[in-house]
């Protein structure tokens, strides 16, 4: 016997690269939380009932829903207006009504994500955005475009953020279940996007390496690089990097890349990386180069050296 009630699917969109994005899918059933990654929301519709011996062989159908773009990271002019289109795709057999709204996001002192009502969190762009329609109905196996108009105030500078939210529910009531069966199904879908808007003038960029540490490799663990970074600027920075390991003679004995990580204005967080190579006992220096892009300016780089000893 299977009972599905009040399934809430929440999709949080994060940006992977400037022109690429991915969706982090979180599915909650009662209090159990599963967190797989997916490129669309897959919702299993249907429910079997009866004892195991009485259950017919039914193939599960997968129905997908999607919102595109997943994330927007754009350069804007102060005092200008822009239009951003969002495409909502319904590849299910259910007629859905979506409600469009915006909210804020930021972070706390432990770098945990915060959400709030429009205009309540730092560097909010939520009040700049207005949807052409607050509600839209999407027929089965079709899509619809929702326009969002962004009006940038003339006196702002730096980066500002908002979370477009699309909440969907079936338009029609679920079908009546046979009296001999004890199964019901209802779904609710919430898609949350991220819009990051940076002014082409007046934005300040200042990422600092506060301190760094290299933990040497052992027989049981890899070499680990741990950097403490702070963004003192008014615009977000996507920091990426590379590292080189030099022995006491200055000879290159190892190298690797550091994955990109986003730092919002005033945010302080760690940047970690591991290296699986082997090093003989001796003295070494890790030379770390970090870089990030700046709107309207050339990319900039930071170089940081960390000596360490392998015993």
What's the arrangement of secondary structure elements?
Blueprint: E1 7-15, E2 21-29, E3 32-34, E4 37-38, E5 41-44, E6 62-68, E7 71-76, E8 81-90, E9 96-107, E10 113-116, E11 129-131, E12 135-138, E13 142-151, E14 159-170, E15 187-192, E16 194-199, E17 207-215, E18 223-231, E19 237-247, E20 252-263, E21 268-275, E22 282-294, E23 297-310
Parallel strand pairs: 1-15, 7-16
Antiparallel strand pairs: 1-2, 2-3, 2-4, 5-6, 6-8, 8-13, 9-10, 9-12, 9-14, 11-13, 14-15, 14-16, 17-18, 18-21, 19-20, 19-22, 22-23
Describe this structure as you would to a colleague.
- The chain is mostly beta strands.
- It folds into two domains: 7-199, Immunoglobulins (Immunoglobulin-like, Sandwich), CATH 2.60.40.10; 207-310, Immunoglobulin-like.
- 0% of the residues lie in helices and 59% in strands.
- The protein contains no helices and 23 strands.
- Strands 1, 2, 3, 4, 7, 9, 10, 12, 14, 15 and 16 form an eleven-stranded mixed sheet that branches. Strands 5-6-8-13-11 form a five-stranded antiparallel sheet, with no helix packed on it. It has a four-stranded antiparallel sheet with strand order 20-19-22-23, with no helix packed on it.
- Strand 1 and strand 2 (21-29) form a beta hairpin.
- The termini are far apart.
- The model is unreliable at 1-61 (pLDDT under 50).
